[in-house]
Amino acid sequence: MRVTANNNCEYEWGVHVSVFSAAAKLTDDQIAATRNSEIDHSLWSLQEVTLLKVIDQLCASGKPSDKALKAFQSDWTVIPQLEILALCGTYHTVSFVANTACLANESFAASFP
User: What is the rounded CA–CA span in Å between residue 70 and residue 91?
Assistant: First the structure.
């Protein structure tokens, strides 16, 4: 959700909120916070804060800072790291396509707060 939020892709963000947020046990405040540029540390675990920072930096510049990368590598083993990076790239692409195609939200999907 963070990648699609960073790319202002309401279509894909809304699908993810509607389909995956309950399984991920995200609160309403956490869901809304995925749209905020500032990370509210009171809503997330330390590992989640690290993950959000890395995602934000990847979206902004294509590379996490050395400090964020070190924390990310400490929190996640290599296989999940690669999966996270691949998912970030995938949802960048999905966001570009959905935004360029001007896709209307799915009838079941959430809308940006």
Answer: 23
Q: 């009171």: which residue's tokens?
A: 42
Give me the DSSP letters along 43-85. GS-HHHHHHHHHHHHHHHHSS--HHHHHHHHHHS-HHHHHHHH
Distance of CA 79 to the CA centre of its chain: 18
Q: How far, in Å, CA of 96 to CA of 52, rounded?
A: 20
DSSP 32: H
Task: Note the pLDDT tens digit of each residue in 35-85.
Answer: 999 999 999 999 999 999 999 999 999 999 999 999 999 999 999 999 999
The count of C-alpha atoms lying within 13 angstroms of the C-alpha of 33, restricted to the half-sphere facing its C-beta, is 15
Please name the residues in contact with 96: beta carbons below 8 A apart, sequence gap of 6 or more.
7
